[in-house]
Amino acid sequence: MPHELETLFNAPANDIMDAILKGFRAQVDVKGKLAELYLHKYLVALNDTRIISDLIWEDQDGVPDFKFNYRNKAYVVECKNLRNEIYKKPRTSYKVEIQKTRNSKDGTNTRSYRVDYFDILAACMFNQTGEWKFIFIRSQDLEVVPENPSLLKIMQRVPTEIKDPWKSDLIDLLNYS
Question: Which of 30, 68, 150, 163 is the most exposed place for a label (fewest CB within 10 A)?
């Protein structure tokens, strides 16, 4: 039985995979969607055990990736992959780029996220570790644009060794004060 994508594209799976292999942008897009898929699986496990509730995976432009409730409070999560390159100075750290895919058509900067756009950033470690694992940080703990503190900096430092305010466990982050 063919995969749904084979039917959708009227092409065999190997051709679809070869096309992705030859397309840098396609690979970036697939890695982004895989990060969301693996984060979703992590969140589903928390939802199934009733640690979180009302999990929603959004898949549309301009809407954060996930929503859920924890202890009667609503949370919004944005999922991003670490970049391949690292910061070397003043200290070695990973980097994650957090910006929306598109600017508005009138040329205004609408790619930067507002500090209140999401509550939690889930940074996928795959590009640095080869593993679909995540570290989490509250948006209020991310760096802001100095001349406009309502916006988050596009490039954020991520420690190579997890330390506060970053957490490897989402529930630890939710309970972190």
Answer: 163
Query: Per the structure block, which two tokens stand in for 36?
Result: 């969301």
How far is the C-alpha of 27 from the C-alpha of 164, rounded, in Å? 32
Q: Region 8-18: what's the mean pLDDT?
A: 95
CA atoms within 13 A on the CB side of 109: 10
Q: Would you state the structure tokens that stand for residue 51, as one six-digit string?
A: 């640690």
Is 123 within 8 Å of 160 (Cβ atoms)?
Answer: no
pLDDT band, very low/low/confident/very high, at 55 (cuts 50, 70, 90): very high
Average pLDDT over the chain reads 92
Tokens 């040329």 correspond to: 107
Domains, the chain, ordered by start: 4-175 (3.40.1350.10)
Each residue's pLDDT tens digit, 26-46: 999 999 999 999 999 999 999
